[in-house]
């Protein structure tokens, strides 16, 4: 930008004044000196006399301490602040949503400027937002009551952020609005870029005074975004403020805030040495070479000699770098200390180099740190500090791994840095260098989906050609012989290692030209006149030069990158230790009415799956896939059965009425419904006295309950239960040795079997009624079984499915009974398979196991129709037994068969009948 004549004159005046003032403007003795120096600056540069006064525009008195001694965040140099800190920080928070007046010991404002704006305190941290900041252009241009609102231009820090405008409403004196917050800081437009240009010829006149780092969004034209609250002068600092919107997602530009910026005094601008990083890498891969260069600039008008400087390059914790880092300082003259010459206008470059260690590196550089040689007042820009961050080495470039549960892995890794160095033989270059670095995958059966990135063909005007390609590739588990998805398994845990090669090489060439003269390809002549007046023509050859062209080539460094890939393999245990269940009968003696059976269910084989996935370049896992397990798992569980007998009606109960009638010598049809007992006084205390020849009806009613819990793959009624019920039914015995006579006058036992005769008497023969042989005397049905065929209620069944799921995220969806037999769970004692090998099994969908609880109630009736059975009239006197009992059960051929014999019950019900006399005693 061209400066106007007025601006140039003012600038000359400014420099002259600085020269004449020397250091008289530094460290003013009192506030009046500070005011004079500041007003001299305003008059010299802007033509404004007595701009700064002892009171500002709102009649606030100058802060004398700040004007004389300065403030710590302004290098202890003067600042012109009016009013009190309390009033300043109150005014600065009057309308903002952030109402903190102090933070970390720093007030938000130190007072007020000459124009009565709050004087910002740069020590107050406004915000730590990580959102993109969108800076508001021309913040001093605000809407008024007439236009109600205007569109403001925005400049984001992120160049990809497309939000470049925002509507600003006119909302004066309204809490937490953009307008009110901006207005509380802005009241004057004296130092806008256009007004400054009118006085100096430069819109960005004050930008060279900015001390703080500028954010990316405003670094190119900060004058359009920073409102100058108070301008700097020869000896006093100035301060400014810039506003921005921020927010992400739906909250874009939902919030507004600001940052503060300091302007250094003019006395600190001239005769200054400054240091800046010329080339600096903010993050470097471990082991890579790092070159740090510092650019030294000087505003002195003479060459500077032997200016001292110092490097401090250490680990981030302050400890020295190891010798392996090979810290060097290229370009440093041998034998010379840490001094540098700084030529006028040219400046100087200083270098340091190292190999990046396995940690961050702290870099500090100082030049003329004491300000003595040369004498220099502004030392704030003489010190540089930064940290170079170590980037984690991408180990997959050499060794890569497929974890136990990975089917395929996408990777990206650097191949190499290949350099081709061209040297010009003579003449000059005559075009661009061309060529290419070839990259060839020689292991296509391992390195799949091969793609080379960042390796364009060479076509550039360079002598040093560098290519740093990187590779996209995929490694697939089947290439290692392990293909569980298709039923091919390699047992483990093991690691299968394969290596693949990527070759690289190539060359570049560049044309050049030169001028070459031959012995003479052109002729010319000239004429001379001799003394005799004769003329002579002379001929000579010459060459203006011929353009010659050729090309020079150079190879890239070539070689082979070997990629070692390990596939970690584990496909499950062949067997899992089975849970041990009880196999026994509880209460298995002749005197227990209740028996409890425990047995291990029959084994069922189930197919299982495991979950495997694919791994992407960023190590994220995707496309989780159910993979068939190598081994089927065996389901067993504790089964149980309960058999409990009870008596509905005992013989004692059924015969009690008849017996009591006999004792009382009563003879009624109702009382003698089941038997005729002897009523003789002599038999009064005998339990069951009868005289042969009378009827004695078998009687009694008994019941048992069978309850089983079994595990089956269908919901059907179980054979286990049915067989056990039938076995128990068949084990019932109703037995007596009484002698009966049938309708054919034959002497028989209760089973209607003829009795043998010995002489004139018949021999006793005990017989028992059973469910399988339930007819007796006269072929009468004397034993009746009531079961589920007779009453529906006698049988019940409850079915509960033992749930399982393939859902990886549903930890409760698989019953513990399954976890007992599946690998990868603590319940089966195999949690290490999940922890170490990322292997956990799930039951494949579509398979079922059910817990089936069945209960049957069976009643056995003896002589249910109370048929009369007459005893043999000549049955010998004596004791006879009638009893119900349960025989031993040889268990059916089911899983509980292995329990052995289910013991019976020796006596379920029993009476002793006394035969004394016969019916003939009563007749005769």
Structure description:
With 924 residues, the protein is mostly beta strands. It folds into five domains: 5-268, no CATH class; 273-391, Immunoglobulins (Immunoglobulin-like, Sandwich), CATH 2.60.40.10; 405-411 and 421-512 and 544-569, no CATH class; 584-641 and 796-854, no CATH class; 645-711 and 730-790 and 855-923, no CATH class. Strands 19, 22, 23, 25, 28, 31 and 32 form a seven-stranded mixed β-sheet that branches. A hairpin with an 8-residue loop joins strand 9 (238-246) and strand 10. Helix 1 packs antiparallel against helix 2 (31-46) and helix 1 packs across helix 6 (193-200). The protein is elongated, with a radius of gyration of 56 Å. It starts with a helix and ends with a helix. Mean pLDDT is 87; it is low at 1-28 and 391-396.
């Amino acid at each position: 930008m061209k400066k106007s004549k007025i601006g140039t004159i003012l600038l000359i005046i400014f420099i002259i004044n600085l020269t004449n003032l020397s250091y008289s403007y530094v460290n003013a003795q009192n506030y009046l000196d500070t005011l004079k120096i500041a007003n001299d600056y305003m008059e010299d540069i802007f033509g404004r006399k007595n701009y700064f006064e002892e009171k500002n525009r709102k009649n606030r008195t100058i802060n004398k301490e700040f004007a004389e001694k300065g403030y710590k965040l302004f290098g202890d140099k003067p600042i012109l602040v009016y009013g009190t800190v309390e009033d300043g920080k109150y005014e600065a928070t009057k309308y903002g949503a952030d109402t903190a007046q102090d933070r970390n010991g720093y007030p938000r404002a130190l007072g007020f400027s000459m124009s009565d704006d709050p004087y910002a305190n740069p020590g107050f941290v406004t915000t730590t937002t990580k959102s993109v900041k969108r800076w508001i252009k021309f913040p001093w241009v605000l809407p008024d009551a007439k236009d109600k609102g205007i569109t403001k231009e925005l400049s984001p820090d992120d160049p990809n952020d497309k939000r470049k405008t925002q509507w600003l409403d006119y909302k004066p004196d309204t809490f937490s609005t953009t307008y009110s917050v901006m207005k509380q800081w802005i009241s004057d437009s004296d130092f806008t870029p256009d007004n400054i240009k009118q006085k100096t010829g430069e819109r960005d006149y004050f930008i060279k005074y900015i001390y703080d780092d500028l954010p990316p969004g405003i670094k190119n034209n900060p004058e359009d975004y920073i409102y100058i609250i108070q301008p700097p002068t020869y000896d006093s600092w100035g301060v400014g403020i810039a506003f921005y919107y921020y927010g992400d997602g739906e909250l874009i530009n939902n919030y507004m805030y600001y940052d503060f910026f300091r302007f250094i005094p003019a006395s600190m601008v001239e005769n200054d040495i400054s240091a800046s990083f010329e080339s600096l890498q903010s993050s470097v891969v471990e082991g890579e070479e790092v070159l740090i260069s510092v650019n030294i600039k000087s505003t002195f008008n003479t060459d500077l000699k032997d200016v001292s400087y110092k490097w401090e390059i250490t680990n981030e914790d302050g400890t020295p770098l190891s010798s392996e880092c090979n810290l060097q300082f290229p370009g440093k003259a041998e034998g010379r200390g840490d001094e540098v010459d700084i030529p006028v206008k040219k400046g100087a470059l200083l270098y340091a180099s190292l190999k990046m260690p396995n940690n961050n590196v702290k870099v500090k550089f100082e030049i003329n740190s004491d300000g003595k040689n040369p004498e220099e007042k502004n030392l704030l820009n003489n010190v540089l500090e930064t940290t170079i961050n170590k980037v984690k080495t991408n180990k997959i470039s050499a060794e890569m791994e497929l974890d136990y549960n990975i089917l395929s892995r996408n990777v990206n890794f650097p191949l190499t840095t290949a350099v081709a160095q061209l040297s010009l033989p003579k003449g000059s270059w005559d075009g661009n260098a061309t060529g290419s670095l070839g990259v060839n995958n020689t292991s296509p059966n391992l390195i799949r989906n091969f793609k080379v990135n960042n390796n364009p063909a060479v076509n550039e005007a360079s002598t040093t050609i560098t290519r740093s390609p990187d590779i996209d590739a995929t490694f697939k588990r089947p290439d290692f012989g392990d293909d569980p998805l298709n039923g091919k398994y390699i047992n483990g845990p093991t690691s299968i290692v394969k290596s693949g090669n990527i070759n690289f090489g190539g060359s570049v060439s560049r044309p050049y030209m030169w001028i070459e003269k031959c012995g003479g390809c052109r002729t010319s002549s000239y004429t001379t006149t001799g003394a005799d007046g004769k003329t002579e023509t002379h001929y000579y050859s010459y060459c203006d030069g011929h353009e010659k062209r050729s090309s020079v080539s150079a190879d890239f460094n070539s070689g082979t990158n070997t990629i070692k890939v390990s596939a970690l393999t584990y496909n499950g245990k062949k067997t899992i230790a089975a849970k041990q269940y009880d196999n026994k009968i509880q209460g298995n003696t002749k005197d227990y009415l209740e028996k409890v059976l425990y047995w291990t269910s029959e084994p069922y084989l189930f197919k299982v799956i495991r979950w495997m996935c694919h791994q992407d370049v960023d190590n994220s896992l995707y496309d989780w896939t159910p993979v068939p397990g190598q081994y089927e798992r065996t389901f067993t569980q504790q089964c149980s059965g309960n058999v409990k007998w009870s008596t509905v009606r005992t013989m004692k109960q059924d015969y009690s009425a008849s017996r009591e009638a006999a004792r009382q010598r009563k003879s009624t049809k109702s009382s003698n419904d089941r038997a005729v007992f002897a009523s003789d006084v002599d038999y009064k205390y005998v339990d069951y006295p009868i005289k042969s020849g009378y009827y004695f009806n078998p009687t009694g009613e008994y019941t048992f309950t069978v309850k089983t819990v079994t595990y089956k793959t269908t919901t059907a009624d179980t054979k286990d239960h049915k067989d056990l019920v039938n076995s128990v039914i068949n084990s019932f015995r109703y037995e007596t040795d009484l002698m009966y006579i049938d309708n054919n006058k034959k002497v028989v036992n209760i089973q209607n079997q003829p009795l043998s005769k010995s002489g004139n008497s018949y021999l006793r023969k005990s017989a028992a009624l059973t469910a399988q042989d339930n007819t007796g005397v006269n072929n009468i049905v004397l034993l009746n079984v009531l079961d589920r065929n007779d009453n529906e209620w006698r049988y019940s069944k409850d079915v509960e499915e033992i749930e399982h799921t393939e859902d990886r995220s549903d930890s409760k969806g698989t019953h513990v009974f399954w976890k007992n037999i599946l690998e990868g769970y603590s319940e089966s004692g195999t949690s290490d398979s999940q922890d170490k090998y990322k292997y956990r099994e799930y039951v494949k969908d579509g398979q079922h196991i059910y817990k089936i609880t069945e209960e049957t109630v069976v009643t056995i009736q003896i002589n249910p129709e109370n048929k009369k059975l007459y005893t043999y009239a000549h049955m010998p006197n004596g004791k006879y037994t009638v009893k119900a009992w349960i025989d031993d059960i040889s268990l059916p051929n089911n899983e509980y068969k292995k329990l052995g014999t289910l013991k019976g019950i020796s006596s379920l019900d029993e009476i002793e009948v006394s035969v004394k006399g016969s019916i003939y005693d009563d007749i005769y």
